[in-house]
Amino acid sequence: MKKHTLLSLVVGLLITATSAAEDAAKKELGRLQGTWRQAGRELSAPLDGRVNQAVLDMTGGETIEYDGRNTNHFYHFSAGLEVKGDKFLFRYRRQANQPLTENVRTVRIDPGKEPKAIDLMPGPGSEKAFLAIYELKGDTLTLCFADGKVRPDNFQVPAPARTKVQERVLVRYTRQKP
Fold this sequence. Notes:
By secondary structure, the protein is of the alpha+beta class. The protein has a single domain (2-175), classed as Lipocalin (Beta Barrel), CATH 2.40.128. The protein has 2 helices and 10 strands, in the order αβαβββββββββ. The chain has helices at residues 2-32, 53-59, and strands at 34-44, 63-66, 71-74, 77-84, 87-93, 101-110, 116-121, 130-137, 140-145, 168-175. Strands 1-4-5-6-7-8-9-10 form an 8-stranded antiparallel β-barrel. Strands 2-3 form a two-stranded antiparallel ribbon. The protein starts with a helix and ends with a strand.
């Protein structure tokens, strides 16, 4: 009887802890709702041009072409983000006169981690989720990706190097007032 009572208590505590974590995630996601404009971007990658183009395309970052000697950067215009419910809608133009490109990701956040964790999941049949960290300070949202497959543990962006370096993309957004 005592074992049954103890097991019931443990299960009850686990359910309560899970419910509290889900409530914290919903509250935090509520703080992210709205329209954001890209205010800055930092990129670090090995100088051999290896960079996760999918991360850059998702956030509207620069497109990089590398021919073995030279790196050319092509910047996107009007990069922004809209957060609606559990969806992040990344929008940008590849050229000033083109329509907006939109990349939609369903998000899962864990505000209890340090730094706060965010998973950006694509639609069915696409590549796997991008693992990132985020920080919200006032009206500034910062997202940081490593190579998209590994979650970074800090917001530092090392300088590009000739030796192997973990690529890092850091994007800052400012909240747009309605």
